[in-house]
């Protein structure tokens, strides 16, 4: 120890000193005679040290004698400067290397030095910012040290303007084949430069076939030849290189090297067609109507005669439409038939005239058929309902009304139950449902009888109604269902609501009073509903109750009044004590709390306030003491005063009558008149308390109280104190605590390390509302009412601090801004470093130097290492050395790139990769990566192997590190990019077959169109071979001909296309000829054929000479002429009068052959020929018919035959007959005899006798004529007549008989009580008169009189016993008396007196 005061190390100690304690900044090892200054890079922080305290902090440098690890005095040390970095234990700051820079202080490592900014270079160490921009033609990735870095010379396919951080790819349409360039070149015409595909173009590529490439072309497909053109050459420079598409072909898309294909069938392609089916009329068109177009056509061909084509776009001859039945086609090239077949004729198919008779293309209309204009392909049979019996007819005749026709000849009466309008066949019209009918021969529906009321006619064809209408339905008229509805006929339907319908109802019956019907189909009154309880039904025919029962009344059910006056089974007036609202069915009692003393009321009155009313009450009762009764109270104790209140009065109406218990007192139960007593000591009581020791409101569990007050008091709790007589508790004083309940004063002060706010219950509260442990970042002395914050620049992460010394300095690399910090605010900002005690994240003097890195949370800056650089100050990390550059920290240290005099250095500026080498990102030295064999490079600064220039097309590079290609590729070979040999097998090859290659070729040259290459390694155009005759070479580069010349064309020699037209090397096949596939010359069609079209492909195109024509030479385009009259030419005839039976023949017997006949035509119906070689047929004579074609035969019995009759012989009509042959006209047919009928036409005798009940006078065609639908004179036997079998006329009924209806074969004997004169039609018209009697068969009214002495007073008597004796006193003087003649005069007549004075009878005079 020093005896005196030791104050300086240079002090010369006085004799009275023996040594001393080492002071801060020094250390004294054992046995030290004097203090040692603290070692550089270390610090000695306290006195009395035997060794250094520790290393200097990173980001700082410590020279000799440093007392702290982060000195800032500049004498013993300082903060690491910009351009430098200082690791832990730094004595002298280290400079950032060249290629980096660092513009912040306090950096701790080389990585804190930032690589030089891309596009810039950092030429020395210790830099705070980059030296300058990178030179044009070079690019500077991060960390460069040279403005022209050799490793980063701009590579081919790229350009680098001044300040480039990376080389830029040449855009599409430009290229660059040299190194070190600042711009790109425009792509040459005939080539394209696709920068996207190649990431920068260094060599333009040849324009592809199907395209052209003007200067600046960007992609292979940018300028395609337009649709309709093609181009089979490469390196084309303009649109003019695109060739129009060939005739008969189309070029269907852009960019074609060859035509897409042949024109579609149904279209022809003229030139430059872009689709296989053009319609613009310029490049081609759809095949027109009347023509056809084979595939590959360049023009259309007409459809031949006998056919037509109505549509456009057909592709083949067979698509031409044969002329259909009913029409004819007389010339070629038609788009529709010329016209319709004539009336009376029919056309089968391919007819060439309107009235054919050859039976091949058509014929005359036969009997039983009709042929209107345009009939075909067959004659039309007469439909049902029509008839005809002759030939050459254009229409049939309608069947007459009341009859039907089904065989096309006869008319038959309409059967019973049906009606037959004009033209009826098998479709008899039934009388419809809802009607009936019992007679035959009806002509119209209105003759059917409408179904009567109460009944229905349920089906068609009824002769009487079906039956009665069903119960639940009504039928008025014309009903066709027993259950009529809207879906049925007639006036009827389901029984409507409100009504019932018994069986056979005509009009629905309404439901009676007191009932209603809400459903249809009710069948009786019993099914009507009784009126609903609570409702009334006061009318008949109701569908629902009329309405609700009236107020004051009740309706039990079945009520017919809304207010029944007396009580009975259906309801009545509402009784007293009850109430009846609208619609009441049973009167309810007045509810509790109401009363009613009157009858016939709809409601009850509420019980008045101050009173209560029991259920059914008619009076009210006063409310008792201790309770209150608002209006409508139901019983006496319904509303008691609640606990905490009291009340001493009666008839109180509301709770306001209940008074709160006064403060200091309590009222413990309901209904009290006075409080029970005073509140207990140690508690506080407020107004309305119901206990002497009140609980906190909501915690009361000892009663069922109803709290009228907001609070009634409570116990004085811990945290408060309550002197005697308190009405409220007192809060415990701040800084102190009140530990237990019922205290009179505070317990004591709050402990140090804690704070107590008002109301504390403990001396060391933790996480309480009244206090807490002293929080982090604060300190709390004894009796603290609140925590005190730590000052700025310090922090404390502990609880319960008792004084300010517990606050710590802020940690190095972090900052503590503001007071009361439990932890530092955060890390120091990236690019800065923060020493101990920092208050900001970006200290002004501590920004990281260039060539260094300061990641977030740095306490010092760090220099960048080799392979990395940092050209900027204030950066958080070093950047990887950029591609095309290298970063060497050793060079940076030597060059002091982070700044002269800085403590540390990292790479600030990357250096350019040297020529012949490439430097990828992160390169540490200049000579790591040489360019490989097959490439060359004469520039610096390239970054990747692919930037070494590939050996140029047409040249080869056989060793590595070449500065230029070795020489040209050999003839017969081609060299692509990167070729390594003059005769390459890779990156090039021998010139392939179909091409030739001169010396220095980069791509083979195709042999041109019209030629092909037969071997590999051809060296010139003369080595290519001309295309073989019959074949074509339509594109360049062929190894053999492309194919055979197309059928329909011929290719002579060196043909450039498969279908040449008008070319020296070939043409389309001419008319009269055909050209199969691979033709080198056309082939002529043989004699007997012709060929009118160009472009035919085979011998089948040679058409056999048309039927009716002949062809006598080869190679003909058309027929020679028509076949001679009297002969026919079938097909392929070589002369005009053939007789071989193959090409044709002489016209046979029974046929005709006019000029130009294709076949012999059979003589039509009604004509004939009887020799060969005829050109026309003879008309059949009258009285004969001609069907065998070669002779005339006599007309048969039952028929007649006018001139020209064939198979259509005409029958004598029904009602006539013919017993002889050879009749010529209708008038010669015989009418049917009297009493006979002739049913069918064409008969040679009558059919039979007229039926009994009918008469046939003359010409009748039925056994049952009705004078309406029969022929001739005849009919049904009329009333009053009879007609036995075979009657020619009706016979009158004799006297004593009658006939009351038509169609009788015998008369009926007159019945008794009636008489019948001659021709009587009804005996009922002739009752026997009074005074007479008429037995069976009486012939007149006076035939049988009552004799004298008798009389008959009534009509219709049939016996003599019906005559009465003349009564006494009377006389009956004559026969036939209906009453006595008179009274006897002066005589007593007993009976049957004949005269007034009868002497012969017993009498008495008086």
Automatic annotation (TrEMBL):
Q: Which SUPFAM superfamilies match?
A: Growth factor receptor domain
Residue span, Chitin-binding type-2 domain: 137-195
GO CC list:
extracellular region
Q: InterPro entries of this UniProt entry?
A: Chitin-bd_dom, EGF, Growth_fac_rcpt_cys_sf
Q: Which domain of life is it from?
A: Eukaryota
PROSITE patterns reported for this sequence: CHIT_BIND_II (PS50940), EGF_1 (PS00022)
Give GO terms: molecular function aspect only.
Answer: chitin binding
**This protein is called what?**
Chitin-binding type-2 domain-containing protein
Gene3D superfamilies assigned to the protein according to its UniProt record, in alphabetical order: Tumor Necrosis Factor Receptor, subunit A, domain 2
């Amino acid at each position: 120890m020093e005896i005196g005061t030791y104050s300086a190390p240079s002090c010369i100690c006085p004799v009275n000193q023996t040594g001393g304690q080492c002071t801060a900044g020094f250390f004294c090892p054992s046995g030290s005679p004097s203090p040692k200054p603290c070692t550089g890079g270390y610090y000695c922080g306290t006195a009395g040290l035997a060794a250094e305290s520790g290393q200097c902090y990173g980001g700082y440098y410590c020279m000799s004698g440093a007392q702290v690890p982060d000195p800032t005095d500049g004498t013993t040390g300082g903060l690491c400067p910009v351009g430098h970095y200082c690791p832990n234990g730094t004595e002298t700051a280290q400079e950032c290397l060249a290629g980096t820079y660092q513009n912040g202080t306090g950096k701790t490592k080389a990585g804190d030095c930032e690589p030089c900014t891309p596009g810039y270079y950092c030429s020395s160490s210790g830099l705070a910012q980059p030296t300058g921009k990178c030179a044009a033609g070079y690019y500077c990735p991060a960390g460069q040290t040279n403005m022209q870095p050799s490793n980063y010379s701009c590579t081919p396919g790229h350009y680098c303007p001044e300040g480039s951080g990376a080389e830029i790819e040449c855009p599409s349409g430009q290229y660059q084949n040299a190194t070190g360039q600042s711009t790109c070149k425009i792509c040459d015409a005939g080539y394209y430069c696709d920068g996207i595909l190649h990431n920068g173009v260094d060599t333009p590529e040849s324009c592809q076939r199907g395209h052209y490439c003007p200067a600046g072309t960007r992609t292979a497909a940018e300028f395609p030849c337009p649709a309709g053109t093609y181009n089979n050459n490469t390196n084309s420079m303009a649109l003019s290189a695109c060739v129009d598409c060939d005739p008969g072909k189309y070029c269907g898309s852009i960019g074609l090297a060859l035509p897409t294909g042949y024109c579609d069938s149904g279209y022809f392609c003229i030139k430059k067609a872009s689709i296989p089916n053009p319609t613009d009329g310029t490049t081609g068109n759809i095949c027109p109507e009347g023509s056809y177009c084979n595939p590959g056509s360049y023009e259309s061909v007409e459809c031949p005669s006998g056919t037509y084509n109505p549509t456009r776009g057909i592709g083949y001859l067979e698509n031409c439409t044969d002329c259909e039945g009913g029409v004819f086609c007389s010339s070629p090239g038609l788009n529709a038939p010329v016209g319709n077949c004539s009336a009376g004729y029919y056309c089968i198919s391919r007819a060439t005239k309107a009235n054919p008779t050859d039976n091949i293309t058509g014929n005359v209309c036969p009997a039983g058929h009709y042929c209107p204009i345009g009939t075909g392909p067959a004659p039309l049979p007469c439909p049902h309902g029509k008839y005809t019996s002759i030939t050459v007819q254009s229409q049939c005749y309608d069947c007459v009304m009341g009859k039907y026709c089904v065989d096309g000849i006869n008319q038959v009466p309409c059967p019973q139950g049906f009606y037959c309008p004009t033209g009826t066949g098998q479709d008899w019209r039934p009388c419809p449902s809802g009607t009936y009918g019992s007679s035959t021969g009806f002509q119209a529906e209105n003759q059917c009888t409408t179904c009567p009321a109460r009944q229905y006619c349920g089906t068609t064809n009824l002769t009487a109604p079906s039956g009665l209408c069903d119960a639940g339905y009504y039928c008025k008229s014309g009903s066709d269902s027993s259950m009529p509805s809207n879906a049925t006929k007639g006036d009827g339907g389901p029984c409507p609501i409100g009504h019932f319908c018994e069986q056979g109802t005509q009009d629905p019956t309404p439901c009676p009073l007191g009932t209603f019907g809400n459903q249809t189909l009710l069948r009786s009154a019993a099914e009507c509903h009784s009126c609903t309880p609570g409702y009334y039904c006061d009318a008949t025919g109701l569908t629902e109750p009329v309405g609700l029962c009236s107020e004051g009344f009740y309706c039990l059910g079945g009520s017919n009044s809304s207010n029944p006056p007396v009580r009975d089974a259906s309801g009545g007036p509402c009784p007293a004590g009850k109430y009846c609202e609208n619609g009441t069915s049973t009167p309810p009692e007045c509810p509790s709390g109401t009363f009613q003393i009157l009858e016939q009321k709809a409601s009850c009155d509420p019980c008045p306030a101050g009173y209560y009313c029991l259920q059914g009450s008619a009076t009210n009762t006063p409310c008792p003491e201790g309770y209150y009764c608002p209006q409508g109270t139901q019983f006496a104790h319904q509303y008691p005063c609640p606990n905490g209140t009291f009340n001493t009065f009666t008839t109180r109406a509301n709770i306001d009558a209940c008074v709160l218990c006064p403060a200091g007192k309590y009222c413990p139960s309901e209904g009290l008149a006075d409080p029970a007593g005073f509140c207990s000591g140690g508690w506080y009581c407020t107004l309305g308390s119901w206990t002497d020791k009140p609980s906190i409101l909501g915690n009361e569990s000892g009663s069922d109280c109803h709290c009228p007050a907001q609070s009634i008091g409570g116990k004085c709790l811990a945290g408060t104190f309550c002197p005697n007589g308190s009405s409220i508790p007192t809060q415990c004083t701040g800084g102190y605590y009140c530990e237990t309940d019922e205290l009179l004063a505070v317990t004591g002060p709050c402990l140090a390390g804690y704070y107590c706010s008002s109301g504390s219950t403990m001396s060391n509260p933790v996480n309480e509302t009244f206090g807490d442990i002293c929080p982090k970042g604060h300190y709390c002395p004894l009796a603290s009412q609140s925590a005190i914050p730590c000052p700025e620049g310090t922090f404390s992460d502990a609880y319960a601090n008792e004084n300010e010394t517990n606050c710590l300095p802020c940690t190095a690399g972090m900052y503590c801004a503001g007071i009361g910090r439990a932890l530092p605010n955060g890390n120091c900002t990236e690019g800065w470093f923060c020493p101990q005690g920092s208050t900001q994240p970006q200290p002004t003097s501590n920004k990281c130097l260039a060539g260094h890195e300061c990641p977030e949370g740095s306490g010092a800056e760090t220099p960048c290492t080799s392979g990395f650089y940092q050209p900027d100050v204030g950066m958080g990390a070093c950047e990887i050395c950029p591609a095309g550059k290298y970063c060497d920290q050793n060079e940076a240290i030597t060059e002091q790139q982070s700044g002269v005099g800085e403590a540390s250095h990292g790479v600030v500026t990357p250096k350019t990769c040297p020529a012949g080498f490439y430097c990828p990102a992160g390169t540490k030295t200049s000579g790591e990566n040489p360019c490989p064999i097959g490439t060359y490079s004469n520039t610096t600064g390239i970054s990747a192997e692919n930037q070494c220039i590939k050996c140029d097309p047409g040249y080869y590079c056989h060793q590595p590190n070449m500065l230029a290609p070795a020489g040209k590729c050999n003839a017969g070979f081609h060299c692509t990019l990167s070729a390594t040999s003059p005769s390459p097998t890779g990156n090039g090859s021998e010139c392939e077959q179909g091409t030739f290659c001169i010396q220095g070729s980069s791509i083979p040259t195709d042999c041109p169109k019209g030629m092909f290459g037969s071997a590999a390694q051809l060296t010139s155009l003369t080595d290519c071979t001309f295309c073989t005759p019959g074949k074509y070479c339509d594109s360049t580069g062929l190894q053999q001909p492309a194919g055979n010349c197309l059928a329909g064309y011929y290719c002579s020699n060196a043909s450039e296309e498969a279908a040449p037209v008008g070319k020296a090397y070939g043409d389309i096949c001419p008319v009269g000829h055909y050209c199969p596939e691979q033709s080198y010359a056309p082939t002529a069609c043989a004699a007997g054929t012709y060929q009118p079209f160009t472009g035919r492909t085979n011998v089948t195109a040679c058409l056999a000479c048309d039927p009716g024509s002949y062809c006598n030479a080869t190679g003909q385009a058309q027929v020679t002429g028509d076949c001679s009259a009297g002969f026919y030419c079938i097909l392929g005839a070589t002369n005009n009068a053939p007789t071989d039976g193959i090409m044709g023949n002489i016209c046979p017997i029974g046929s005709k052959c006019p000029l130009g006949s294709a076949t012999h035509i059979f003589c039509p119906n009604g004509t004939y020929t009887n020799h060969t070689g005829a050109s026309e047929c003879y008309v059949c004579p009258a009285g004969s018919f001609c069907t065998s074609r070669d002779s005339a035969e006599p007309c048969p019995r039952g028929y007649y035959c006018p001139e020209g009759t064939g198979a259509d012989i005409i029958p004598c009509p029904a009602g006539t007959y013919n017993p002889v042959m050879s009749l010529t006209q209708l008038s010669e047919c015989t009418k049917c005899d009297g009493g006979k009928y002739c049913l069918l036409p064409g008969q040679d005798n009558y059919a039979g006798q007229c039926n009994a009940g009918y008469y046939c006078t003359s010409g009748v065609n039925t056994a049952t004529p009705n004078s309406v639908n029969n022929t001739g004179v005849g009919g049904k036997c009329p009333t009053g007549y009879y007609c036995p079998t075979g009657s020619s006329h009706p016979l009158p009924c004799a006297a004593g008989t009658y006939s009351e209806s038509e169609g009788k074969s015998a008369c009926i004997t007159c019945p008794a009580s009636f008489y019948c004169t001659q021709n009587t039609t009804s005996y009922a018209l002739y009752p026997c008169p009074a005074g007479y009697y008429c037995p069976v068969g009486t012939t007149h009214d006076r035939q049988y009189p009552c004799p004298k002495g008798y009389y008959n007073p009534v009509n219709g008597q049939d016996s003599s016993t019906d005559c009465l004796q003349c009564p006494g006193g009377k006389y009956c003087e004559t026969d036939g008396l209906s009453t006595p003649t008179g009274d006897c005069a002066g005589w007593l007549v007993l009976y049957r007196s004949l005269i007034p004075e009868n002497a012969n009878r017993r009498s008495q005079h008086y």
